[in-house]
Each structure stands twice: as C-alpha cells, then as structure tokens.
Design a protein that fits this description.
The complex is a heterodimer of chains A (500) and B (153). By secondary structure, chain A is mainly alpha-helical. Chain A contains 22 helices and 2 strands. Chain B is an alpha+beta fold and 153 residues long. Chain B has a single domain, classed as Nucleic acid-binding proteins (OB fold (Dihydrolipoamide Acetyltransferase, E2P), Beta Barrel), CATH 2.40.50. Classes of the chains: A mainly alpha (500), B alpha+beta (153).
Amino acid sequence: MLIKPRLEDHKIVGFYLGTVLVGLGAAMGIPLLTALCFREWNPLLDYSLSGAITLSLGFALRLSCFTKKEIGWLHGLTVAALSWLVAALMAALPLYFSGGFGSYLDALFEAMNALATAGFSLVRDLDHLAVAHNMWRHLLMLLGGQGIVVIALSMLVRAGAGGFKLYAGEGRDERILPNILHTARFICLISSLFLVLGTAVLALILWSEGLPPVKALLHGLWLFMAGFHTGGFTPQTQSILYYHSWRLELALLGLIILGIFNFHLHYAVLSGDKKELRRNIELNIFFLSVLLGAFLVFWALIQRQVYPGLLAMFRKGSFLLISAHTSTGYTTLYPAQLFREWGQLALLALMTAMSLGGSVCSTAGGIKILRLGLIGKALRQDVQRLLLPDNAVLAEKYHHIKDAFLNDKIVRGAALITLLYLAVFLLGAVAGVCYGYPFFAALFESISATSNTGLSCGIINPALPAGLKIIYLLQIWAGRLEFIAIFGLLAYGWSCWRGK
Amino acid sequence: MRYLSVLFFLLGALAAAEPIGSAELIVQAAKYDGRRVVYQGEVIGDILPRGDKVWLNVHDGQNALGIFTTRSAAAQSKTAGSYRQRGDIVRVSGVLHRACAAHGGDLDIHAEKIELIAAGFPLARPAAKWKIVLALLFAALTFSLGRLNSRLK
C-alpha cells in the first residue's frame, strides 16, 4: 500500500529546501559586493532585492517547517530535485531584473544552465553585461559544480546520518571520508585549493596576453569557475576565441581535465597513492576514449581538409573534443562552422564524447565513463561465460579507488542510468524535430543539453520557441541529477496524490 | 555603352564597399576565404596587443569576429564596448581567413584599414526606484525573519 506523506514529511522537505535557499541568498552577497566595488548601482539593487527575497523565503520555510525528525531516502531525493528547481528559480531573479534577458524564462534557462554546469546562454548582450552579473553567472557554476546541497550541507546543516541521503540525491554516491559532512567539506577544500592556483595561472596568462590586471584577474577567476566545474560560461560572446591565445587554451585543457576527475581520485593522489592514476578504471577508459575520439576527429578533419596545417587541426580538434568529452562546452569555433565544416563523422565523435562525459563524483555530466566500463566488463564476463563450462565460476574485478567485484546489482544500476540517458537523448531529439529542426542537429543539441555540455549547433538561442526552451531546461535538470532524484520527486508527488 | 560600363564599375565599387554581416561571413566562409571583405560593427571588450600588431573583437549585432591589424590602424578606435559604454563603430577592410594558418585555424580578418564610423559613448544606466523600495521592504522582512530563525535550536 502506498503511504501518503504526513505533515511531518512535508516539513522535512520544506526545512531543508529553506536551508538551501538561505545558502543561495547568502551567496548573492558576492555579486552584491562586486557591484559595490565596481560602482554598478543597478546590479547592486538587483542583488539586494533578489538576495532579500531569497533569504526571506528561506527563513520563512525554515521557521514554518522546523523539525528535528531525521531525513529519509525519499525526502533526500525530493529535497535534491526540488532544491535545484527552486534554486534556479531564485537565482534567475537578479538576471531577470538586469534587463539582459528577453523574458523570465530566458533568465531561468540561464540560471539552470549555470547551476547544472551546462553552459548554454540566452543573454541578449553578453559583451555589455555588468561585472556583477558575470560574477553571478560564473559563481552559480561553481555552486552547481560543487553541488548546492553539498555546500548547504557543509555550511548550514547539522552532521547526521541523513546527510548522505541529500548528497546522493545530487547524483553523488561515494563517501570519500567516513563522515558525509567531512566528505562535503573535503570536496570544498580541494576545489578551493584549485581555485586559488587555477585563477592565478589563468590571470597571469591573460595579463601577458594584454588584458588589464584587474580584468585579467576577473576573467581568470570566471574561466576557472566555469572551466574546473565543466560549465563553459565565458564573459564574452566568442567563448575562448575572444582571447586569441593558445596558452590559455592549453591551460584550460589541463584545468577541465582536472575537473572531471573523481574527487575520490583527487583524495587518493593527494594522500600519496600515485599508483591510483595508473590503475583507475575511469582514467584508463577516459584516455582510451579520448584517443579514439581524437583519431576520428582528426581523420574527418584531414579528409575534409578543414585546416591549413596539422598544428591548426590538432589545436582546434583536440580543444573541442576534450571540451565535449569533459562536458565543458568551451569552444574556439562558431556553431555554424562546426556544422558546416567539420562533417558528420567528427560530429558523431563529438556527440559520443559528450554522451560519455567524465567521472562519477566529479563536476562533469553525461552517462559517466565508470558506467561504460562496468557495462563493458559485464559484457566481457557474459561472453566468457558462453565459452566456459556451465559449472565454471567467473568473477570479474575492476579497480576504482579499491578493488571490487562486479555483481548484477552494480551492472543493473549502471545499465539503467545509461538507458535513461539514451532515452532522454532520443526524446529531446524527437522534440527538436517536432519543432522543425533537422534530426542530426536536434540530436546534437539534445545530447549536449542532457549531458550538461553546452556545445551548440545554433538551435539554442534567444529566439528558440518557449516550449523547446522548457524541454531543454528539463533535460538539463534531469541530466544533472542523473534522473534518480527526479524519480524520487515523482514518487513523492504520486504518494501525496494516491497514498492512504 | 561607355556610360553603362562606368555605371557598372561604380555599382561594383559600391557593392564592394558594402559591409557583409558576420553571419554571412561565417556561414559562407569558404566563399569569402582569402578575399577582401568589408565588415562593420562595434569594438567590444579589450584591444589585445601582439608585438606590433593587435587583436580587436568587432560585434555586428549577430556575432563578434576577431580582427588582426597593426597598432596604427587600430588606433582609430579609442573606446571598446563594455557595461559602462558603447564601443566605437568601425568599418574594417581586410582579408578574411576561414581557417587562418597564422592563428591556429581561427576564422579572422586581417585588416588593412579601419575607419571610425561613430565614436563610442557612455551608457546611462539609471537606478530604478521600484527596486530601491522593494529592496528596502524585503531587507526589513529578511532581518525580522532572520532574527526569528536564529532562535531555532
């Protein structure tokens, strides 16, 4: 029998949702201070007003839903799914107030893209956007990349067994340290370390390439926040092409590769376990997959004679391939060029790379390479089973931080998520075709949205029909949460309606 | 017949001087590759020096294209567009490269001449009064709710 959630259950959801909103409202203090420093008075008001609205709502929810009851699995999934929606709704407020978006839906699309580290942008005039608004767009990528619930956990919530349920709801299911609160704080610590180093390196490069010192620092910080968290926002319309710098492209490649590594792997390496780099199944598959993708992309570019020399081909091809594979979405090409010049083979390689994405428990999107590895190993085990006697016992091992045996439960979980991703890729493409776009372009955009990559073939722009904007927005939200939290939310809603 | 030839020549010259939009240049890059083009738009962001040359980024309302030129040619432009100001509108004459061999395969224009069409100007961004009133009201509400919230144990 389906049990109808009681008032106490709604209070748990409301209380944690309120906590996340308080965290988000407090975060609006950063662009507010930026506006103050740069004497941008209108943005200052945008963030004062939006911050006050978000904090009021958060405090009101915490007060009206205060409870000491421990959070359960369904609550955790519901809170995670709702937090991302409500946070995007509130994060969109200052962007909408800025007047830089055609509608509130466009501002919401931008905020969801930032939080989910997807990177599609619907801003009308990015090159004239205030420093404070750029700070907010990129900060949202950092908050989303880290996981807004993880941040709320580490800053605002008491340590408790229920914390893991919130953490897992955001599409993360690994404990790096025994206590989930310590895990959340460790993730923030690693990211802070890289934030300082990464920003310094990028700022120095940008300064040497001609940006004034303050601007170099700001652009360095923003590119770090969007790059390390595999988001792909930039402060200028031309993306990375704006800077005309191979040094910057090289530094960003290193940064985004670091960003897609599992935080568990960062912990192992920082703890002195260098062997993990060689043995880890995700790393091995990632490098194999990049090599294969590079072969296909270079083959296609050579065949079509797209670039005048090998160096130019290598620079353009490898940057876009790694940007796609890591689900970052930085580009040094115009969308029309990509579709008209690169050809279908290279685009197919890019779409496959976007689908696969990065590591689990990282900032990357996509199906995740660990799942691909597990399904591959299961396939190998099944083929071996056919070749061996019926009574033979087969045990398949894989190494991901520690040695583990493959079992049906693990494989089923990986296969289920993979199937869900594939189904959403296809459904999104069908929706695009229904709106009159060619199938191949619609599939490219659908994969890019669901895998939170943000590379575009030109379909997603401010003139996109509102219905399709909502479809892509839902794809980005579902892809970021890896579907499970969405099912949790649906189950919660269903039990509210049909439960007894 | 002679007048007709002169007329065609003049029309041709006028057509050649007509700026081509960035969308056309990007989509038809193969057609314009290596050809002299005229492009017009607003200088945005920063002017990035590279030795005795510079990079400008010029936005025509649809896309921004990278313009590689000499410092002296770029000196025509004094103001680049940002939050505070509209940048100079410039007309760029130069050679389009679909995939520039000198610049890692970038689509760019190597400009020979840059003309200032209209000087940039500061953008007025007056603060909206309704935002001030609402922000004060919500700040008071936040303060009250925050005080109550701090008593939660």
